[in-house]
Q: What sequence folds into this?
């Protein structure tokens, strides 16, 4: 086995004071560069601000927030801070309402993105000897090309298998000796199901060792399940198209929160209602400012993702702060009978039951004029024909859910593979309630 350096690049091991000095330098440069974007020029003019007003990192708070609506309103190219002939790629996300959003990249943006993803993969032990298989859709979804270029930068042999066709994925695992896989959590569980159906034992029949899971909220129990199923270590990966894609924050081998790369981003956590910073360690909305982007820098972008900064130092020796597992997006919050509920609270309870498989669906309906919730959850094979055990199990699940979310859902235990499967991010909530 060759010996390699621990850190992928010097900034990864910077001390707090080095990180902050670099952040200020890059923030000032970014703000100046933003004046080449008609959108930010106008924003600064309206706020009576000039780039020279940003003298310290705290001065960031003088700058107005940027929102997803701003991206929609300026669709497609209204936020560009460079001429279009310097851009070499765009990624677009199709929102469910209104215009989609577009993020433009220069060649240098793409190189920086690949570096960030490579740093993440290197951090969890990926090395040129590894074989990396990517089960993300390629194309507009950034998990495809984002991981592709990052994995190539590490020097791994890459298998751009793309989404779906699980049997083919399994054949690639065995034929090419895949050691590292990137998959969304719901798909990782699906891979295991198909392995079981085909009599493949991941420990005996594959060389899988590392799994990168991200792109959708998942609980610690889901992670542990997936690790046990596939015999791998699974690392949480966080990103979003607006911040390039993957490579924003990633777990280190300690698996205790995701280091967010502060040489690329300034992190704020704000109360989504008052927009004031929350006290240290409390949950709020993640707000990010890009520090290295050429084509489309974003200042104080409201991500809608809810998380908190984990207190304390990480034993791994990196000083970039750690974000807790995402609690969900503020727009994912379910309001049922006036109670605020996040789907991840329900998942956390469900995944503690060994009898349950990984797929579940929350349906919200209006029944006799009242809000009602049904939770359908797939069973593993166990107990399926023992009616009294099934009833007892469903009562216990209902009780624990009621304790957690303060309302009583209807729980239905359904056979394996009966809930709809999606090739992209899993759909966990269907809301059929009448809107008034
Ligand atoms: P997209 O821009 O389509 O890639 O979606 C980005 C969004 O996916 C983020 O804003 C988060 O809401 C969600 N997301 C990405 N990674 C994670 C993760 N590791 N855990 C929870 N949610 C995630
Ligand atoms: Zn660490």
A:
């Amino acid at each position: 086995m060759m010996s390699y350096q621990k850190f992928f690049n010097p900034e990864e091991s910077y001390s707090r004071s080095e990180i902050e000095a670099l952040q200020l330098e890059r923030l000032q440069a970014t703000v100046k560069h933003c004046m080449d974007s008609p959108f930010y020029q106008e924003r600064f003019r309206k706020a009576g601000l000039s780039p020279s007003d940003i003298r310290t990192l705290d001065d960031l708070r003088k700058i107005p927030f940027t929102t997803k609506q701003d991206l929609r309103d300026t669709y497609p190219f209204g936020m560009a801070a460079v001429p279009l002939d310097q851009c070499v790629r765009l990624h677009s996300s199709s929102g469910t309402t209104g215009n989609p959003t577009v993020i433009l990249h220069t060649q240098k943006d793409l190189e920086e993105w690949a570096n960030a993803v490579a740093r993440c993969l290197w951090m969890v032990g990926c090395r040129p000897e590894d074989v990396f298989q990517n089960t993300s859709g390629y194309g507009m979804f950034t998990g495809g090309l984002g991981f592709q270029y990052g994995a190539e930068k590490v020097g791994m042999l890459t298998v751009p298998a793309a989404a779906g066709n699980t049997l083919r994925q399994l054949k690639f695992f065995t034929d090419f000796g895949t050691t590292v896989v990137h998959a969304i959590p719901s798909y990782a569980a699906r891979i295991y199901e198909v392995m079981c159906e085909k009599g493949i034992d991941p420990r005996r029949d594959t060389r899988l060792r590392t799994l990168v899971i991200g792109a959708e909220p998942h609980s610690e129990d889901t992670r542990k399940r997936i690790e046990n199923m596939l015999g791998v270590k699974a690392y949480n990966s966080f990103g979003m198209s607006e911040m390039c894609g993957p490579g924003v924050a990633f777990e280190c081998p300690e698996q205790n929160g995701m280091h967010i790369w502060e040489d690329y981003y300034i992190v704020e956590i704000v109360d989504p209602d008052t927009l004031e910073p929350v006290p240290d360690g409390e949950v709020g909305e993640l707000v990010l400012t890009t520090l290295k982007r050429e084509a489309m820098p974003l200042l104080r972008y409201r991500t809608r993702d809810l998380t908190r900064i984990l207190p304390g130092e990480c034993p791994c020796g990196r000083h970039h702060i750690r974000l807790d597992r995402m609690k969900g997006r503020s727009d994912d919050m379910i309001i049922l009978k006036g109670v605020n509920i996040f789907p991840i609270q329900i998942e956390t309870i469900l995944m503690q039951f060994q009898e349950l498989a990984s797929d579940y669906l929350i349906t919200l309906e209006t029944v006799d004029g009242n809000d009602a919730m049904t939770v359908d959850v797939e069973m593993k094979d166990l107990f399926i024909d023992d009616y009294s055990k099934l009833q007892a199990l469903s009562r216990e699940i209902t009780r624990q859910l009621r304790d957690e979310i303060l309302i009583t859902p209807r729980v239905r235990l359904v056979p394996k593979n009966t809930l709809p499967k999606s090739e992209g991010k899993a759909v966990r909530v269907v809301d059929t309630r009448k809107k008034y």
